[in-house]
Amino acid sequence: MSKYTTLEQHASYGIGLQMGQQLADNPFDGLDIDAVAAGVIAAFTEQAAEVSDEQIRAAFTVISERMQAEQAEKAELLAQAGEAFLAENAKRPEITVTASGLQYEVLVAADGEKPSRNSTVRTHYHGTLIDGTVFDSSYQRGEPAEFPVSGVIAGWTEALQLMSPGSKLRLYIPHNLAYGERGAGNAIAPFSALIFDVELLAIL
């Protein structure tokens, strides 16, 4: 049975859980959770700090530089992996490479009107990283997506204008035509090449 029984204790414990989750989502190597707890207690109870402001600033600077270097190294590795994958993929005879570097293969062909940059479209799609990890899929949600052709990543904007309703393409998108150096949330790291199956259902 929990030793936390009152509403106030439940709320207090919840605050601790939220803080812990935030730390767990963005930790650094060597993070000491006991030291975190001691700092929280010292601040809340107005105790004298055991670590000086100068020491804290110096530690923040070093840790921040270390994390930035690690992120830059990971980004470089991802960029290299994406470039190597796309270079090999481009050799396949079924792949078309456009002037921008977008690669695609036709899964289902269709004739008819094609959308412009100013069009709004309805699509089904399935997006993965180059290792096959699924990060987004309207098929899995069971509901198509509607959006302006100009309101999506550059690789999609270009590809949609090549499609007619009923067609389906598999896109291989370099990072500079996707989410680039920023990435997108936790699912898509910076400099990630992406793969999308895109089915154009309708021009709205």
From TrEMBL:
User: What is the top-level taxon of the source organism?
Assistant: Bacteria
Q: InterPro entries from the entry? A: PPIase_dom_sf, PPIase_FKBP_dom, PPIase_FKBP_N, PPIase_FKBP_N_sf
Record-annotated PPIase FKBP-type domain positions: 118-204
Q: Which GO terms describe its biological process?
A: protein folding
Query: What Gene3D superfamilies would the database entry show?
Result: 3.10.50.40, Peptidyl-prolyl cis-trans isomerase, FKBP-type, N-terminal domain
What the entry lists under SUPFAM superfamilies is as follows:
FKBP-like
Signal peptide bounds: none
Picking any one GO molecular function of the record gives: peptidyl-prolyl cis-trans isomerase activity
Under which EC number(s) is this enzyme classified? Answer: 5.2.1.8
Keywords of this protein's UniProt record, alphabetized?
Answer: Isomerase, Rotamase
This enzyme catalyses: [protein]-peptidylproline (omega=180) = [protein]-peptidylproline (omega=0)
Q: Which family does it belong to?
A: Belongs to the FKBP-type PPIase family.
Instruction: Please state what the protein is called.
Output: Peptidyl-prolyl cis-trans isomerase
Q: Which organism is it from?
A: Rheinheimera nanhaiensis E407-8
